[in-house]
Amino acid sequence: CRQLFRSPSMPSSVIRPILKRIDRPQDRDTPVKTKRRRSVAGTPSEEAAAEPVAWLLRSRSFSHEEIENLLANDHQELIGDFSKAYLLQTVEGKHQDLKYISPEMMVAVLTGQFSSLIESCVIVDCRYPYEYEGGHIKGAVNLPMEQDVEEFLLKKPIVPFDASKRVIVIFHCEFSSERGPRMCRFVREKDRACNEYPHLHYPELYVLKGGYREFFPQYQTHCEPQDYRPMHHEDFKEDLRKFRLKSR
Question: Fewer beta carbons within 10 Å, N or C terminal of the chain?
Fold first, then answer.
């Protein structure tokens, strides 16, 4: 499985670059200023206070130039059919053979920041129906079973009208720990089996890191209903037992 999503032409140690950081001012840490700060600071805690603080930005817009830089970088890994680089910036996740995106990147897709390059984005919610009904990402389709996702995606594959644009698929479950990654692998394996290598119906697959559990608290306005029902909810123990039996 580790080689499932990795281009054979790329070494496994290559790490995809992230967006360019904001350049620091040239005169922030000159030797003179560094020496002066150390001589003035009386205690280690004062020195620590002088260090710059990094702030986390939950949502931002990606400029056209930033998107072009992402696509133009030669060190990016290629998508499943090796035709082009992955479009979305990825982050490290539990399973090294899969491509993870952050909740922030998901929102960038949902708000149309990549609309000039993506024709269709299919969000596959792999949770059980009672979880999905209790709250899900707007536009997501609930496909908890393998036969469901095979019927929806592979029986009649989604083909872009504009050949220059992409169809991407993003999988998730509650934590994107087991069900989402497993379904992502299933689609890739079935897709490989029904196409002549290296062609694929869906060469660009992602997993939402942290799943719905991490997405919902940050971006409730992108969920409907705006609520979160966990898998181990007290009122749905029988539903959980039933769906676990079906999925075996």
Answer: C
Tokens linked to 182? 């497993």
- Asked whether residue 189 is assigned to any structural domain, the reply reads yes
Q: In the numeric block, which tokens belong to residue 5?
A: 């999503």
Looking at the annotation, which residues are catalytic? 173
Residue 187, CA distances (Å) to 52, 53, 92 in order: 44, 42, 21
Q: For residues 50 and 162, which has the higher predicted lDDT (pLDDT)?
A: 162
* The two structure tokens encoding residue 103: 């909740």
Tell me the mean pLDDT in the region 100-108: 98
Q: How confident is residue 114, by pLDDT bands cut at 50, 70 and 90?
A: very high
Per-residue pLDDT, 246: 87
Phi, psi (deg, nearest 5) at residue 149: -70, -35
Helices 103-110 & 211-218, crossing angle to 10 degrees?
A: 70
Helix (H/G/I), strand (E/B), else coil: 118: strand
- Assess whether pLDDT exceeds 90 at residue 101: yes
Tokens 């499932």, residue located: 4
Q: How many domains does the structure of the chain reveal?
A: 1
Tell me, yes or no, whether 50 lies in a domain. no
Q: Where are the beta strands (DSSP E) in the chain?
A: 100-101, 118-125, 136-137, 141-142, 166-172, 205-208, 223-224
Backbone angles phi, psi at 147, to 5 degrees: -65, -30
- Three-state DSSP class for residue 78: strand
Residue 183 lies in a domain: yes
